[in-house]
Design goal:
single chain; alpha/beta; Quinone Oxidoreductase, Chain A, domain 1; Rossmann fold; 2 domains; seven-stranded mixed β-sheet; six-stranded parallel β-sheet; 10 helices; 30% helix; globular; binds NADP nicotinamide-adenine-dinucleotide phosphate
Length: 331
């Protein structure tokens, strides 16, 4: 089958950084689905893995953790899906990614694709929806009755674009998103942010709005953390998803504030007893899309799932300037 992958970690300007491959079809295990991949989207994790991890044991590495497709076969322990079902999911970082015609995934972390979206529009959503949902409800402990203020740093990125919508639609929180450019500012407003502030002048712009009770630090946490600790309300909560090299957690002591990590791959990587929650979250997201409460965050459909288009997508992501999600469709 067709796939896109690589053997050596190379800069994206090198044509061998991602190449077109012909690899054997995967076999599903008892809990797995084998999915015919129709569309995928790209995330910063693809570029990070490509830079840090070469292929192993002479095998190429296949990236891709955002999929919309059709179930082609199901393992004997699978009860929620059958061949022909349309699904969307992120998958697991400890298994091969989905930049291939057929992909195998544990059915417990799969959701039904929103009926009102195309495969391309649906492929934009799973990884960022799971991250945003887990961060808000499972890590920060927000409930649908929670009020107060949520600050989202990196509002126009993939995760921020879902978090703005989920917080606005499902909670009583006042949503403050950061954006430093006119197109990102406008995008955050379109998605429902009550206020948009510039992260290059964070302290000044937050002052008139007041201290946030919750902070989602999605991007640039290395530099923003001291300002966020200073701005946070006493007894507030902050959740981080990116990769700061260092972090001084003692800055939170005076306020009895708490620090949380969200890593979307924790449940599938460790096969936690509650890993099926990811399937439930995606089903709920699909319902909310079909009810018109959440929208796709696809901004651009770049073309076919091939090495040339994927290299272009990685190059765009590596700028750190993309808005919403970039999607590829078909082989
Ligand atoms: N832990 C997890 O489970 C998880 C899941 C998904 C992503 N992540 C990580 O989280 C990070 C964000 O992911 P993403 O997909 O949302 O990113 P993204 O789509 O690449 O975010 C791009 C946006 O970030 C904003 N931005 C750039 N530099 C910024 C800075 N210094 N401060 C604030 N905003 C900045 C830009 O808007 P402006 O120019 O307007 O600011 C841009 O539109 C990445 O490091 C990713 O690997 C982690």
């Amino acid at each position: 089958m067709k796939a896109v992958g690589y053997s050596r970690s190379l800069p994206i300007s090198d044509p061998a950084a991602l190449t077109d491959l012909d690899i054997p079809e995967p076999t599903p295990g008892p809990h797995d689905l084998r999915v015919k991949v129709h569309a995928i989207s790209v995330n910063p994790v693809d570029t990070k893995v490509r830079k840090r991890m070469a292929g192993e044991n002479g095998q190429p590495r296949i990236l891709g953790w955002d999929v919309a497709g059709t179930v082609e076969a199901a393992g004997e322990r699978v009860t929620r899906f059958r061949p022909g079902d349309e699904v969307f999911y992120a998958g697991s970082l400890s298994r091969p990614g989905a930049n291939a015609e057929l992909h195998v995934v544990d059915a417990r972390i799969v959701g039904r694709k929103p009926k009102t979206l195309s495969f391309a529009e649906a492929a934009a959503m799973p990884l960022t929806s799971l991250t945003a949902w887990e961060l808000l409800f499972d890590r920060l402990g927000v409930t649908e009755d929670t009020t107060g203020t949520l600050l989202i740093v990196g509002g126009a990125g993939g995760v921020g674009s879902m978090l703005i919508q989920i917080a606005r639609q499902l909670t009583g929180l006042t949503v403050v998103a950061t954006a430093s450019r006119k197109p990102t500012h406008d995008w955050c407003e379109t998605l429902g942010a009550h206020h948009v502030v510039d992260h290059t002048r964070l302290a000044e712009e937050l002052a008139p709005i007041g201290a946030p009770n919750f902070v989602a630090a999605l991007t640039g946490s290395d530099t923003h953390f001291p300002t966020l600790a200073e701005a946070l309300a006493p007894q507030g909560r902050i959740a981080i998803i990116d990769d700061p090299e260092t972090l001084d957690a003692t800055l939170l002591k005076r306020k009895s504030a708490s620090l949380h990590w969200e890593f979307m791959f924790t449940r599938p990587m460790f096969e936690t007893p509650d890993m099926a929650r990811q399937g439930e979250i995606l089903d709920r997201v699909a319902d909310l899309v079909d009810e018109g409460k959440l929208r796709t965050t696809m901004r651009e459909l770049l073309g076919l799932i091939d090495a040339k288009t994927l290299r272009a997508a990685h190059e765009r992501l590596e700028t750190g300037q993309t808005i919403g999600k970039l999607v590829l469709e078909g082989f």
